[in-house]
Design brief:
The chain is α/β, with parallel strands linked by helices. Helices cover 43% and strands 22% of the residues. Keywords: Phosphoprotein.
């Protein structure tokens, strides 16, 4: 410590100790009655021992004088490292520790004392001239009991020390009382045991030896005990002992035993480490209880609490828990799921003529037929009587749920076999989907039940979604599928073309073909209304062939390239390149004027297969563009590997180009990167002159958007192109 020597104790310190008298005339205990709490007279063999740690000799001397005059036994250390040694050897009752010292400061020394076995409960008072909040905070974080600021108030020093010692004594007695109570509770169990680390022998009480079927002699090697433990639990038992020995904390464990000539038993163990005088583990003291009957009873209760006794299916309690688990998974990014409430009227029809046993067989037959539609990740339960419920996970669309419900209904169109006779059963299914129909278990079950009640209003077997809106959407989806199929047959589809402008020459060099559906009675439909349905039903293959043929035929006599979107189902179909080339040859359209646009999602699903297909297309002279770049799984590593000719920057980056510096930086860097890789860049969503000028400044190759031209039907496109330069710039 580099501060100046502390001042001499002021006059009031004389009030701390009375005038000197002969030891046989005035016991020190009379001068400090508080010391009797420590169980002995001050200055005697059991007087409180205080360790003073300070690098200033004068300070240590003055503190020693005050404390010894009060009746305490004092030892000293001049730095933190020496204090650790003294604390280990002398085990003081209290430590007065300075903060700023050489070798090891007081904070570090306090932490080290707290980590030791013998010092973790020793009171530590920090002595420091730093009386700010930070110093106090650091002291307590280091494990200090209290702090005393310098210059020391000598009149209060003894009071602070006495209070800390009294508090430490109370805490120690409380710990001992708690330990005694815990051990008494354990001893009251059926058996007790003790593992001696010195001999390696396990000593058991008579009750425990009888429980395990052991000989009357006490003390057996641990390996003999392990031989009695079920193999799967031996590792756990070894870990239990190892953790007790090294971490020295009370632990509990339940193991299964299979003693010779005795039935397997469940044994509950609890243990605690007893340390020797040096703080080293000496023995483990523990108790054991045979909990076999309780475990069997609990297993039976748990089964009947969660499963239906008749069918073996989960009951309402377990089903609610599984629905709750599905909600948690969905909230963390999983897919939606559906709850189906099902009732079967087979028992209602027959209950007047069948016995209870026959009724049970009907319910079991219903459960078995329902279970035939159960996937491994789904759950079927019996709610009550003839009511069941099904949890259908990973729902991608309402149509998938409708399909599952319809299959359930169709299954019960055939008679139900019950023993030697058969009966017809009507099935009513109510459907609720998370999260649109409810975000908690009760709401989903309630809404599924309401939907089932509406299904019962129909004659025969049926299913119904909870909301009329959702039900109408499913019906509309089914109607749209049929209408799309008919539309392909009747030629209701048409193509619109959006020009692409070369930003360096100002000339139109290509178009993108965009599919439209002129649906009777509903007008012109945009792709977002039907593309997903085409993809999911497989109609996209026929529609894609039509788009390719129609677009190339329309552009055949124009000096323009044509871009056609390719869906994942089309792209992943075998021999894509060969099929495209066959179409081009039939209509005499050059392959190098065709550009197929794909999304990065196609590549993510099967990167190696996609790269092979892209190389095949490139060898045939067909250009490939990566569409909507920046909105999906954009990866520079993947971009480097893909044999691409064109990259299309998504319109959402381009539309905010002028107002958003981050988007401008992304677009600019993407253009530079693509040019370094030899890839042409098309910017979608060019809406105004400002964006176009920035793209030209960035060196973008091609622009496309409403600011240049909206998608047009072929006649309108011809009229528009009559007023603009078209085709490559003449040499």
């Amino acid at each position: 410590m580099t501060s100046s020597p502390p001042p001499a104790p002021p006059a009031p310190v004389q009030t701390l100790a009375p005038p000197q008298v002969a030891p046989d005339r005035a016991p020190l205990a009379n001068r400090d009655a508080g010391l009797t709490d420590l169980g002995g007279t001050p200055g005697g063999p059991t007087a409180a021992k205080i360790l003073i740690v300070d690098d200033e000799t004068v300070t240590r001397m003055m503190i020693r004088r005050v404390l010894e005059d009060t009746g305490y036994s004092v030892i000293e250390a001049e730095d933190g490292q020496a204090a650790l040694l003294q604390a280990e050897q002398e085990q003081p009752d209290l430590v007065l520790m300075d903060v700023r010292m050489p070798v090891m400061n007081g904070f570090d020394a306090c932490r080290a004392i707290r980590r030791s076995v013998t010092g973790r409960h020793t009171p530590v008072l920090m002595l420091t001239a730093l009386d700010d909040v930070m110093a106090v905070t650091l002291a307590f974080e280091a494990g200090a009991t209290d702090f005393i600021t310098k210059p020391i108030n000598w009149a209060l020093l003894g009071q602070r020390v006495r209070y800390a010692l009294r508090t430490s004594t109370t805490e120690r007695e409380l710990r001992e009382s708690q330990l005694a109570l815990a051990r008494a509770q354990k001893i009251a169990r059926l058996g007790q045991w003790r593992l001696d680390f010195g001999t390696g022998l396990l000593h058991c009480s008579r009750e425990l030896r009888d429980l395990l079927g052991l000989a009357s002699c006490d003390g057996m090697p641990v390996r003999d005990v392990l031989a009695m433990v079920v193999p799967d639990d031996r590792v756990r038992l070894r870990r239990f002992v190892r953790d007790l020995r090294h971490h020295q904390r009370e632990r509990e464990l339940e193991i299964r035993l299979a003693p010779q000539e005795l039935a397997a038993r469940y044994l509950f163990l609890s243990g605690d480490v007893v340390l020797d005088d040096q703080g080293r583990p000496r023995v483990i003291f523990g108790v054991a209880q045979d909990v076999s009957e309780r475990r069997l009873a609990e297993a039976r209760l748990s089964y009947y609490a969660h499963f239906d006794e008749l069918t073996g299916l989960p009951n309402r309690v377990l089903f609610r828990d599984r629905v709750h688990t599905a909600i948690t998974a969905a909230e963390r990014g999983g897919r939606p799921f559906a709850v189906l409430d099902i009732d079967v009227d087979a028992l209602q029809r027959a209950q007047a003529t069948v016995t209870q046993a026959a009724g049970d067989r009907i319910i079991k037959a219903v459960a078995e037929r329902l279970a035939t539609h159960l996937r491994e990740r789904d759950s079927l339960c019996r709610l009550e009587g003839d009511r069941f419920a099904m949890l259908v996970t990973d729902v991608g669309h309402e149509l998938a749920v409708a399909s599952r419900a319809q299959r359930l209904v169709d299954t019960f169109a055939a008679p139900l076999a019950v023993g030697d006779w058969e009966l017809l059963a009507a099935l009513n299914v109510g459907v609720a989907i998370y999260p649109s129909d409810g975000r908690d278990v009760d709401m989903l079950l309630q809404h599924a039940g309401a939907a089932r009640a509406r299904a019962r209003e129909s004659s025969g077997s049926s299913y119904h979604f909870f909301t009329a809106d959702m039900h109408d959407r499913v019906v509309d989806r089914l109607t749209t599928e049929v209408a799309l199929f008919r539309g392909l047959e009747r030629g209701e589809f048409e193509l619109h073309y959006q020009p692409k402008l070369d930003l360096r020459t100002g000339r139109v060099t290509g178009v993108e073909a965009l599919l439209r559906w002129n649906r009777p009675g509903m007008g012109l439909q945009m792709p977002d209304k039907f593309i997903d349905i085409l993809e999911q039903t497989g109609l996209i293959m026929e529609a894609g062939e039509w788009v390719l043929r129609e677009a190339c035929a329309a552009m055949r006599h124009l000096p323009l390239s044509v871009a056609v979107n390719v869906s994942p189902r089309q792209f992943l179909h075998p021999h894509l390149g060969a099929r495209v080339m066959r179409t081009l040859e039939e209509i005499n359209f050059p392959a190098d004027r065709l550009e197929l646009e794909i999304t990065e999602q196609i590549v993510v699903e099967d990167e190696e297969g996609a790269i092979e297909t892209l190389h095949d297309l490139a060898r045939r002279g067909i250009r490939v563009a990566l569409d909507d770049y920046g909105t999906g799984f954009s990866s520079l590593q993947r971009l480097k590997r893909l044999p691409l000719h064109t990259l299309k920057i998504d319109k959402y980056f381009v539309m905010s180009l002028v107002t958003d510096k981050a988007d401008a930086a992304i677009v600019h860097s993407t253009i530079d990167l693509c040019h370094q890789l030899g890839i042409q860049v098309v910017a979608e969503g060019v809406e105004d002159d400002g964006a176009m000028r920035m793209l030209q400044t960035f060196g973008c190759d091609v622009g496309q958007g409403y600011g240049i031209c909206r998608p047009l039907a072929l006649p309108a496109l011809d009229a528009w192109m009559a007023a603009v330069p078209v085709g490559p710039k003449p040499a």
